Amino acid sequence: MSVQSDPTITAVDAQSLGGGPVQPRAATVLTPLGFADVRLTDGFLSRLQQENATTSIVRGQQHLDRQQAWTNFANAASGTVGQPYHGPVFEDGEAFKWLEATAWEHGRSQDQQLAEWLERYIELVASAQAPDGYLSTFNQIAGKRDRYEWISYDHEIFNMATMIQAAVARYRTSGARELLDVARKAADHLDATFGFDKRREMCGHPLVEMALVELYRVTGERRYLDLASYFVEARGHGTLTDPTWQGWTSVYFSDRIPVRDTVYPEGHAVRAVYLAAGATDVAVETGDHELFAAMRRQWDNMVEAKMYVNGSLGSRWEGEAFGDPYELPSDRGYGETCAAIASIQWTWRLLLATGEAKYADLVERQLYNAVLSGVTLAGDRYFYVNTLQVREGAIPYDDRMGAAGRQEWFGCSCCPTNLMRTLASWHHYMATATDAGLQVHQYGSATVCGGGLQLSMASDYPWRGDIEFIVDDAPDGERELSLRVPGWAAGATLEVVGDPVPIVPGEYARVRRSWRTGDVVRLVLPMTPRTTRGHHRVDAVRGSVTIERGPLVYAIEHVDQGAGLRVDDVAIVSTDLAQEWRDDLFGGIPVITAAARNLPDGDVGRLVAIPYFMWANREIGPMKVWLPIDA
Amino acid sequence: MSVQSDPTITAVDAQSLGGGPVQPRAATVLTPLGFADVRLTDGFLSRLQQENATTSIVRGQQHLDRQQAWTNFANAASGTVGQPYHGPVFEDGEAFKWLEATAWEHGRSQDQQLAEWLERYIELVASAQAPDGYLSTFNQIAGKRDRYEWISYDHEIFNMATMIQAAVARYRTSGARELLDVARKAADHLDATFGFDKRREMCGHPLVEMALVELYRVTGERRYLDLASYFVEARGHGTLTDPTWQGWTSVYFSDRIPVRDTVYPEGHAVRAVYLAAGATDVAVETGDHELFAAMRRQWDNMVEAKMYVNGSLGSRWEGEAFGDPYELPSDRGYGETCAAIASIQWTWRLLLATGEAKYADLVERQLYNAVLSGVTLAGDRYFYVNTLQVREGAIPYDDRMGAAGRQEWFGCSCCPTNLMRTLASWHHYMATATDAGLQVHQYGSATVCGGGLQLSMASDYPWRGDIEFIVDDAPDGERELSLRVPGWAAGATLEVVGDPVPIVPGEYARVRRSWRTGDVVRLVLPMTPRTTRGHHRVDAVRGSVTIERGPLVYAIEHVDQGAGLRVDDVAIVSTDLAQEWRDDLFGGIPVITAAARNLPDGDVGRLVAIPYFMWANREIGPMKVWLPIDA
């Protein structure tokens, strides 16, 4: 089937072309902006986005090439079964996540090299697709098993889902339909194969739910939404089994309890949260209020009892899984980078649907403290696991471990490619529009256009908390500008064209007025360091505090400690914190210091804390986020 | 080769026949007693030993029969390759551990049913052995791989090692040599196959080191000691690889660092500690003082930084492994029952070699708190994992989990059979002899004969701390009676024939005198409940205490808490502990109570603690060993 042959497609283009990730068709409280409407112009995140483009994506292409990920597609295209297959069964998915990142980045930069890669690899992918739309090169090449014979393990549907997401990104950022054609053929194959009245199964690894809803959003093809809804409803009845004897259970697969009855996300964290994001998409597009309420409850419970202070998810290495409620030992923190990224995707969907500031607060917490920790500042090495503590004498027996330091690539390299697509599309998460006006959720230096307003935002965020907005263009009549005041920002102030405006942390400051070009708005978020205590049920943090400053969770790393303070033994003797700008660290950052001493009764000194996500960018050694108090 | 043909055997018999586990040939500070020299006559441990005989061993025979463990031997005897194999590759080893337990129990009770089983199964085992001595039914039946092709995974040498241990037990308790012949043939096969100048490899799962040294002790065949020494020295050079792609590393296999250079035991806890016990045997028999010093250092470091308060070992589920030093989160405690048993075996060897009370102290701590917790009081269900905490809402997704409760059997049932052989031979760990006299290490009601003295010991230990010894027979002249005063027994008193004798906790009370029949010795170990704090590096126990009483670690279980106290939220508000005898619990035990309240600011009540090892004998629910202090 060719895309052009679909009568709905042209109508859809007008609204979907130019969009970013997540463009709801159903009415939501907030409307996302197009990929051209927000642009990071300067500052910390802008530089990271640039590193992502020039280092991460470029090296990613080399790594995937070295791993022969694309060779698999060439071999599948040849149609010969029994050829050597390269990588894990989900290698296609990593190639497609990289392809999606490349599409977003190309949309942003129009870089020629990226354009060439996109054309070359999309052509290769199209040639590898089976005539009936099936596409998963492991099964096409190796021919070890029938299609979907090991549906819980072989990631076939997952692989097609990542391709669909890449196709949506490619289409929205360029209007090019080649990959979208492949995506529709794959989706039609899935639709012809799976359903309550067809093959009543689902993939061991959720993702297709989100992908199908987005494809529905682009094409207007209702069947894709219905199929996504099927995959959500079919799950949770204990039908997935473990063909590999690795001890996976229905808990691992998020298949123990139907999604709409689930109270806490459980099992493999990335799978559970991808599923939750997809279920939220389905609820939004189908207007299923019961399902939507269930997803909000799941999110509240996850944040309350199954999330580390830095926003990372997953406290069990076995099964890369969520633990029981409040089971959050720092030293065993798994916090897969992909899990935090999946949570941002889920949380962003809840924000669009509700407009509640707590969702934007979590997106910020997870980006800075659980996602950015997954990559070096240079953009060349990655953490798969984001632990909150590394001790003296830790043995790096596993390349995912904190003590092993960040790695250039992994046998399972989902996290690097997931980071790439997240950073390449990060600007989409910064602002939204409504009929009334513009909402700014995340801060930095950027130009923002939406809801009738065009603004320039200038800030050295997250290092400094003063953010200046200048109105570059505004229509006649009143427009509302909404600025998120983070929950942590006690004492925040807002000044609109010289007049102070009262604001409340944890809510949006809403300013409705007739704007003129040149109007200036100043939001000041106090960057006073603070200490945070944990829930009394979390044993590992009892009698301890974390240091936070603005959106950043801080950590102590051995290399910064003087006066013989040892990370494994140090305790804070006073919660009076001081901050100090250090030009010599990472090109200039604020460090936080506190009076401390070694337990049980060692020397006193001042410990030095740096932003958690920056740890392990120098040498690898002991690190700790939670600090005992001996005051 | 027939045992009778060995000229050394007869000479050896005299000294080895009648011995218990571990009968050193080299001179050690303490000499173990024969299996007939110590007999539990009454009391708690005696009843457990009886349950082990009448319930555990009997049901074990049924479980192994159901699992067709013996069918594997019958099929191997038929010599046909390609037949169905039943159970994991180490199923032979579980059958042999049960056979060893049966041998010790038969030696103790002379039970006819046990005698029949021993004869039947030993005949079957002999018929299954290959002509050259090889015996591992998985490889013999399935014929999937060459012998030792997957030496790190297939447990072939491990399986033969468990058979050798069973053969030694059978021989020492009966003089019967049928299985000893099989053991020697297997050992000769191993000796002909492995060595620095032969096949330079070793088993992925240590155990053969201990087994070969014991076979040397029985037979006097030096080659077996040399081969054990080879297996110890060959390890630690990173030669073991993972054929199954499960991510096992040289750390997992205790193959990263040579045994004599290892500072902390690491990797798979059971393997690491079996290896340590075998290396200690080798050091003792070869007089290798450097290796012996290294094993003592390893033990000190394990106890200091890698052991839970209850004596259980292993804080990582992934790889069933030791964590980094001080990485001991209660909620993720793995504490495999086999690991604590292995530690008792290792620690007993160090005790015999040194006579230091700290070793007997640990044997006691691990028996009561990390081994007995592995089986129900009825002897019919088992814990594989001994966690220190179960929360509300814990999902029992794995039958090893505390929240799943004890199980009748496991796919990997090493723990039940290991418990059986430990309880059936427990009396051997109670006392030793020297030329000077008799040493009593563990207390209860028993008759003890050694070092020239014959005693009756009467005590309701561990419930009550007063222990009475009556001399039943003594020679002319002076003999020394040594009684361990546990490190926890502050305020202990000793009265010898009416006269008080000063004693020091953590040391042996040594009384040298001319004894007369009827002399009475009274040792009183105060059973005052106490609170214990953890090391400041163990984050999960910060600001918390455990309750201990005598040798027992206590825990709180949800079923005992009144006044709405919740296990997950309760904190002690005063460390003034009270104890109360409760006839209604488990046939009568002392419980400990303390003023407590629910955090953050709930009602006040008195929490009720029971001995940790007795938890989950009623219903399964929240349980906790470490209690926060809110005083």
Automatic annotation (TrEMBL), chains A, B:
Gene this protein is translated from: hypBA1_5
Positions of the Non-reducing end beta-L-arabinofuranosidase-like GH127 middle domain = 438-527
Its taxonomic placement starts with: Bacteria, Bacillati, Actinomycetota, Actinomycetes, Micrococcales
Give one GO term, molecular function aspect: beta-L-arabinofuranosidase activity
Enzyme class, UniProt record, top EC level = hydrolase
Keywords, A to Z, come to:
Glycosidase, Hydrolase
What protein does this entry describe? Answer: Non-reducing end beta-L-arabinofuranosidase
Q: What is its EC number?
A: 3.2.1.185
| GO terms of biological process kind | carbohydrate metabolic process
Q: Which residues form the Non-reducing end beta-L-arabinofuranosidase-like GH127 C-terminal domain?
A: 529-628
**Start and end of every Non-reducing end beta-L-arabinofuranosidase-like GH127 catalytic domain?**
37-426
Q: Where is this region: Disordered?
A: 1-23
Q: Which residues cross the membrane?
A: none
List the PANTHER family hit by this protein, alphabetically.
Answer: DUF1680 DOMAIN PROTEIN (AFU_ORTHOLOGUE AFUA_1G08910)
- Organism, by scientific name, is Occultella aeris
Question: Sorted alphabetically, which InterPro entries does this protein's record hold?
Answer: 6-hairpin_glycosidase_sf, 6hp_glycosidase-like_sf, Beta-AFase-like, Beta-AFase-like_GH127_C, Beta-AFase-like_GH127_cat, Beta-AFase-like_GH127_middle
